[in-house]
Write a structure and sequence with these properties.
Elements: H1 2-13, E1 16-21, H2 28-39, E2 43-45, H3 46-55, H4 59-69, H5 76-87, E3 95-99, H6 105-117, E4 124-129, H7 132-139, E5 142-145, E6 151-153, E7 172-173, H8 180-203, E8 207-211, H9 216-225
Helix pairs in contact: 3-4, 3-5, 4-5, 5-6, 7-8
Bound molecules: zinc ion.
């Protein structure tokens, strides 16, 4: 028992800095939450960082807004500036998990430069993987209620009555974004963007690939085997 207690103590004091990669439909968000909870680290997504910088009206937030108002992507230097500000907040001192960032090679390079400058290292880059066929099947099983907008999944949370919303009995429809062709295109874009990142982190010896197909518990167990405490 004493040994187990000691293990727990050490890993809780270890700074875990992760990047989490994974295609749409793989269940990355769910696994990210589990890891963050377990290591008491914040879950950092660029979307959330952007929203909070904009609502705080920080200099970077204002800058980001000028691009977004024109319908343009926020440039990497602005994103990286926000990341740097975010890492200075006390809750990130014990580590953090990046979700959906870096998205491109220049962003990965920028992050590397930033971490070097502030004397930090990534511990692990976790890539959750799954076959396109399975992801397409999962994502194309999403249905949206025409009346109230509730989203349901025919595989994971089938409605009580076929074709009808559990909340309001409205008609369940398949949005265009959830059609197999559109999903397949999104997956291709993801692969194109992510492939170079996979190579980049593999060369740095930081990459761990994990099979993301299975129940939430099974996938969590596979991930855990690769994290410092090594137990689930
Ligand atoms: Zn409804």
């Amino acid at each position: 028992m004493a040994y187990g207690h000691y293990r727990r103590y050490t890993y809780l004091n270890r700074k875990m800095r992760l990047v989490f990669l994974g295609p749409p439909g793989i269940g990355k968000g769910t696994q990210a939450k589990i890891i963050c909870h377990r290591f008491t680290i914040p879950h950092l997504s660029t979307g959330d960082m952007l929203r909070s910088a904009i609502s705080a009206e920080s200099d970077l937030g204002k800058k980001a807004r000028t691009f977004m108002d024109r319908g343009n992507l926020v440039p990497d230097d602005v994103v990286l500036g926000m990341v740097e500000e975010r890492l200075q907040k006390p809750d990130a001192h014990g580590g953090y998990l990046f979700d959906g960032f870096p998205r491109t090679l220049p962003q990965a390079d920028g992050l590397n430069e930033l971490l070097n400058r502030i004397n930090q290292n990534l511990d692990i880059v976790l890539a959750l993987e799954g076959d396109d066929d399975i992801l397409i099947k999962r994502l194309s099983s999403r249905r949206t209620c025409e009346s109230c907008g509730t989203i349901t999944n025919l595989i994971f949370s089938p409605p009580r009555e076929e074709g009808k919303c559990d909340e309001c009995s409205g008609k369940l429809i398949q949005r265009n974004d959830d059609k197999p062709d559109v999903i397949s295109e999104r997956l291709k874009v993801y692969q194109r963007q992510t492939e170079p990142l996979i190579t980049y982190y593999a060369e740095k010896d930081q990459l761990i690939r994990v099979n993301g197909v299975g129940t939430i518990k099974e996938v969590t167990a596979r991930i855990s085997k690769n994290l410092p405490d090594g137990e689930s």
